[in-house]
Amino acid sequence: MQAEAFLVSFPIYIAEEKAGQRGMLELKEYESLGAALREAVERWAGEVCLIEDDRGREKLRLTYKEFGETGRRLARGLEDSGFAAGDRAAIIMTNQSKWLISAYAIFYAGGVVVPLDYKLTPGEQLALLAHSKARVLVVEWHLWRAMTQAENLSGLDVNTVLVTDAPANADLYGARRWVEFAAAAKGEPEFRARRRADAACIIYSSGTGGRPKGCVMTHENYLEQCVALTSLYPFWPGVRYLSILPTNHAIDFMVGFIGPFTCGAAVVHLRTLRPEFVREAFPKYKITYMTLVPLVLKNLQKGLQERFDELPAGKRMAFHALRALNKLLTRRRPNVALSRRLLPQVHAAFGGELRALFVGGAFTEPATLQFFYDLGIPVANAYGLTEAGTAVSLNDFKPFRPDTVGRPLPGMEVRIVKPGPDGIGEVAVRSKTVMSHYLDDPELTAETIVDGWLMTGDLGRMDRSGHLQLFGRKKNMIVTEEGKNIYPEDIETVFEGLPVKEFCVFAANYLWPKRTMTGEQLVIVLHTEAGQAVREPLRAELAERNRRLLNYKRIHGYVVWEEDFPRTASLKIKRAVLAEQIGRRLGREAVVAL
Amino acid sequence: MRSLDQTIDEVLNLAAVHFKVARVELRPGDDFFKKLGIDSLQALELLTRLEQHFRVELPDYEVQGVSDFKTLAERIQARL
Fold this sequence. Notes:
The complex is a heterodimer.
Chain A: E1 5-9, H1 33-43, E2 48-54, E3 57-63, H2 64-80, E4 88-92, H3 97-108, E5 112-115, H4 122-132, E6 136-140, H5 141-148, E7 160-164, E8 176-177, H6 178-184, E9 199-206, E10 213-218, H7 219-232, E11 240-243, H8 250-261, E12 266-270, H9 275-285, E13 289-292, H10 294-310, H11 313-329, H12 336-342, H13 344-349, E14 356-360, H14 366-374, E15 381-385, E16 389-394, E17 407-408, E18 413-417, E19 425-430, E20 437-438, H15 442-448, E21 449-450, E22 453-462, E23 468-473, E24 478-479, E25 485-486, H16 488-491, E26 502-507, H17 508-511, E27 522-527, H18 536-548, E28 557-561, H19 575-585, E29 592-593
Parallel strand pairs in A: 2-12, 4-5, 4-6, 6-7, 7-8, 11-12, 11-13, 13-14, 27-28
Antiparallel strand pairs in A: 1-14, 1-15, 2-3, 9-10, 10-20, 15-16, 16-17, 18-19, 19-22, 21-22, 22-23, 24-25, 26-27, 28-29
Helix pairs in contact in A: 1-2, 1-3, 2-3, 2-6, 4-5
Chain B: H1 4-18, H2 32-36, H3 40-54, H4 60-63, H5 69-77
């Protein structure tokens, strides 16, 4: 399976508020994200939609009206520059107001948004830009500066580059300033209607070093996702969502943009993601919801646990008693109001208005989820992948089940393909939220969407109560605790030219299947020349090349293999066959750590 | 004004103290994730500590992708 997987934890201690009562848009009536957002801008004109903070200093606060005005000016500028309906525009930015304003402008002008990961290398960004055939690039100046130094810059073929955050007098390397571009546009833009089946975004789930996987997501995909999620988990004016996961990721795009904006809520962006500023943001902005990755959640857990351990003996006992009482009283369903009264100091640290946390990007250990639940901070498990839309299944807290990733969301069909005697098989999904196709790759699309079912490559089982449990992966990839999806093919280029006969990178759990979603590692299989031993110069070169990779992409160790790799007629490695051979004849102990 | 060597030395000293490792084990070219056994969040903690010490502000993008002490020190040096 080629899909990028991520796991999401959604809090839904069933909101007593119904979306309709709070004035959420009736998304079923809209044809496109542009149309829905345009209505939101009018309906909640006076409400705050965006707040931007930099190291504790508030830098910007925009109402929906102001957001709409700037977005329309930018849209007019794009239209004046020849941007046509259906054209693609890429965004490479950290989380900030101009990300969302740019996306609104692109949708308004009938365009397709291509969100690219700002953490990729400039070369990777340029390769994906070329693949997407974007005509416009909206990018932060420092990222653009790095891109202009990349070897493959000459392949860049966009009409307009707009930069944000450029210092005064900075060399713009041929780009135009975003602010000036928008300010110069005169008159109202034309709103270009799109249909539900038209592409809204192209999201790259992987393929930076190999075969690009551009998921073509339609307007319908997003509108249906939003309906499903907000039916369980509504936003409304006054809700403040703290956005720290990258907006280019499917989760933040939905939960940190489309979801809150179609409900009149506000999104808070931080320009630095240091833990101390994230912590300060909770009380400062009275945060209602936030999505984070398991690594950050565990860091919060560690910090809280240390504070609990430092309490004087008497207070510690009282705290334990209150926590136990909270646990008892919320065993059937969460009750945040009660928990806030029982454990006021814990909740005060989170600003006093936090209703729940989302955890996204990777598998979250049940013990961590339970830790927060016991404190009255609901964090429900869910499961999703870019290709399927934001979430496939969601824990409904009836009751809290941290050992599962919840039940399928409304409108989501989930089945287990070829289950073994233990009921475990590949998870397949069918829904209006499943992507249209992979951009320019019908072969990969056909392998991934079979008879209308998206094959996820994840192994799972449905229990009697309809909850989905996950048991590892069938596919050759790993997900780190920071929520990073890593496909071995994407990092092999770093090892090209290694003085061995041939090599191949694998997820260790793909070679030696293990029913777990945590502690995943990458290994490189080295087929050495006859008589060649892996000695120091080669080890040193491996280590040196490994260091060129970002830390989370590095391989853990190597395995020596003494036979030719099985290959196709076009000489591509038959990875699945090789993996099966290695798994059968070698054990994990064959891995030599680097 | 500190020299780059001085900055590197101070970065290594602070890292050793903050993460309780022997200073002699740290070298400028070391990968601090691996050498200190830390994750990306702990690296951010170190960054904050370094900012306080050197009285500089390093935007997140300046340190994105940096994983060795020497490059980190160079980024600090450029802002002193």
